[in-house]
Design goal:
- The complex is a heterodimer of chains A (about 170) and B (about 280).
- Chain A has about 170 residues and is mainly α.
- In chain A, about 70% of the residues lie in helices and about 0% in strands.
- Chain A contains nine helices and no strands.
- In chain A, helix 1 crosses helix 2 and helix 8 packs across helix 9.
- In chain A, about 40% of the residues are buried.
- With about 280 residues, chain B is of the alpha+beta class.
- Chain B contains eleven helices and seven strands.
- In chain B, helix 1 crosses helix 2, helix 1 runs parallel beside helix 3 and helix 6 packs across helix 10.
- A seven-stranded antiparallel β-sheet of chain B has the order 1-2-3-4-7-6-5.
- The chains are: A mainly alpha (about 170), B alpha+beta (about 280).
Chain lengths: ~170, ~280
């Protein structure tokens, strides 16, 4: 059940909302038990109920785009490259200074589809195939969302580092 | 393999999914291409940052009991549910619906995993030892060092000598509670006993450091219990007529409760925060 609770926490960013979302998920599972296909992955089934519940409860007003401005990601890399001979060295130093809360906030700011696969892969340790089953999409989509999700996170973290003054502002 | 082909495979390489010829070609390319090498290292760093800096939120026990309660309430408002339909009997308390869902999930997970770990010796096995201790408490051969009507007295006594958090449920509905400490191969163990009305009605709870139990070096858990705890935070076992065992994680403590009491009553009592 922790996988659902953790997902609820990361999606709602609030323990009370996470509790409500978890409760609503189980109530729906209880009411629609006859819809569950025996022999299929019950964790994936519960997860999908939670994801749909989340969309209905918390995303009524904000419809986030599924596309990401890829130029932003590219520009980021060029910017950071100008800052240091080894951009990864600089990045490690910068991100090392960020607070855990800031890293969590950066993750929570990602668009849902990207955030979901990053949570399931990097926090829950699920395989691409399991994630594909959870979110009902092809493995190739999982791979590309993961790549883009991590890239976007990198941009967000860089912005946090900049706003904290760890790096010179433009 | 060219740069754009390599770029497509970076996530899979970071997640250690490449093998054979593809992996070889990928590694050869990044060893000679600085840009692709930097992209790979960068994504690897981001993954590691997420893994190490974002804690996995663990569900508090009170949230678990609230969900169980909500399900019980849901059942009261309907005449026939999947639960009764499934078993064709209306006698089940639907509060266990959640537990059933969890048990199925855990069961399926265990089947997929097919644990091959060597059998854990009985003296190190927290489950065997907890059942044995419960029998000893029932027989009167283990007696608590402290007994009180106040949970806090027992908690204060136990927490002095251990590094993990001690959990003692409020004594609402029980006659008294008691506690004692022991050590096995250098690992501290706390034992709490609750006495309910009636001669034989005891609830025994052993508590120990969660990390120590999961590491499994000095004391440990059978693979199915360990998997269930990792995935759900709970593990259940019962032997009808003999005992019901409920195991759960509470912060950094592993708690194992054994009693003849009904499982739902045990969970409701043990997860009562008194608030």
């Amino acid at each position: 059940m922790d996988i659902l609770y953790n997902y609820a926490m990361r999606m709602t960013s609030n323990p009370d909302d996470a509790h409500d979302l978890l409760q609503e998920t189980y109530l729906k599972a209880y009411r629609f038990w006859d819809k569950y296909e025996k022999g299929t992955n019950i964790r994936a089934w519960l997860f999908r109920i939670m994801k749909n519940t989340y969309i209905n409860l918390y995303r009524k007003t904000v419809k986030e785009p599924d596309t990401v401005d890829y130029d932003e990601i590219k520009n980021f890399y060029n910017t950071i490259k100008d800052e240091s001979a080894d951009p990864n060295d600089l990045q490690e130093k910068l991100f090392g200074q960020l607070l855990d809360d800031e890293v969590a906030k950066a993750l929570e700011s990602l668009p849902e589809d990207f955030r979901t696969v990053v949570i399931l892969c990097d926090i829950e340790g699920l395989t691409y195939e399991e994630i594909a089953d959870f979110v009902e999409c092809p493995v190739g989509t999982v791979r590309s969302r993961l790549h883009r999700g991590r890239k976007l996170l990198q941009v967000k973290l860089f912005e946090y580092a900049k706003s904290r003054g760890f790096i010179g502002k433009d | 393999m060219n740069c754009s082909q390599v770029y497509e495979l970076i996530s899979e390489a970071v997640d250690r999914r490449l093998s054979g010829k593809v992996r070889q070609e990928f590694e050869t390319h990044i060893s000679i291409c600085g840009q692709c090498q930097a992209e790979f290292t960068s994504e690897e760093m981001i993954k590691s940052l997420i893994q190490h800096r974002i804690p996995r939120a663990k569900m508090p026990a009170e949230v678990y009991s609230a969900v169980v309660e909500a399900l019980a309430h849901e059942r009261q408002s309907e005449k026939r549910s999947w639960f009764t339909a499934f078993f064709g009997q209306p006698i089940f308390n639907p509060a266990v619906a959640l537990i059933l869902i969890l048990t199925i999930a855990v069961g399926m997970y265990s089947v997929v995993k097919k644990p091959l770990a060597p059998k854990l010796p009985n003296e190190k096995n927290i489950i065997s030892q907890s059942i044995k201790n419960y029998a000893a408490v029932m027989a009167g051969s283990i007696k608590p060092k402290i007994m009180s009507h106040a949970a806090d007295d027992v908690k204060d006594y136990l927490k002095k000598d251990v590094s993990f958090d001690i959990s003692v449920a409020p004594t609402n509905g029980c006659d008294w509670c008691g506690g004692t400490l022991s050590e096995f191969d250098g690992v501290k163990l706390a034992h709490v006993v609750y006495k309910f009305g009636g001669e034989q009605n005891l609830l025994y709870v052993s508590q120990t450091d969660l990390d120590e139990a999961m590491k499994g070096e000095k004391i440990g858990l059978p693979t199915d219990a360990k998997d269930a705890l990792e995935k759900t935070g709970w593990y259940f076992q019962d032997k009808p007529g003999k005992y019901n065992l409920v195991m759960w994680e509470q912060k950094h403590t592993l708690c194992t409760a054994v009693s003849k009491m009904d499982r739902q009553k045990m969970i409701a009592f043990l997860t009562d925060t008194g608030e």
